[in-house]
Amino acid sequence: MRRTLSALVTGLVIATGGVACSSSSGSSAPASSAASHETNPPGDIPDSQVFVAWSPPGGGYTVKVPEGWARQQHGHATVFTDKFNSVQVEKSSAATPPTVNSVRSVDLPALQRASSHFTLGKVGTVQRSGGRAVLITYRTDSAADPVTGKHVRQQVERYVFWKNGSRVVLTLSGAVGADNADPWHTVTDSFRWS
């Protein structure tokens, strides 16, 4: 029995030593759990983020949103948030489709009035799987943190979709410098009228 136990312990020590040696020599041995976790700067949405389809109670459209984010209702808008990031969706009626000129003359002044330290990026049209949208990009300050009172500079993408008298505004925001281009494309390209 002693000989079997001694052989087992020796085998375990050799096996463990072998893994340690092969890990440090750059072989294809599994990485440690600490090394396998992705580290993201503040505001970056991790590559492992899962997205789930969401529709409002009245239907009309679906959009994929990040799974696990907090959901709140603000009037007619539904907002999904996590740390420095948010996805806001709001549906309303509109007799005519948006154009670059209508968004510049109507939406833009309202955004400037409602935003702190507003800086316009661009206004143009983009094509997504769910149809054409008018896109406004801009920067603004976040609301003050309730604990520290500090503001975070936000990069915002605002997409205005329209179909048959219905207008949906999809607004995505995150900290300036965060690399969220792929997640934001996943969300905006998932938008579908139903």
TrEMBL record:
Residue span of region Disordered: 21-46
Show the ranges annotated as biased composition (Low complexity): 21-36
Q: Would you tell me the protein name for this molecule? A: Lipoprotein
> Which UniProt keywords are present, listed alphabetically?
Signal
Indicate the secretion signal residues: 1-20
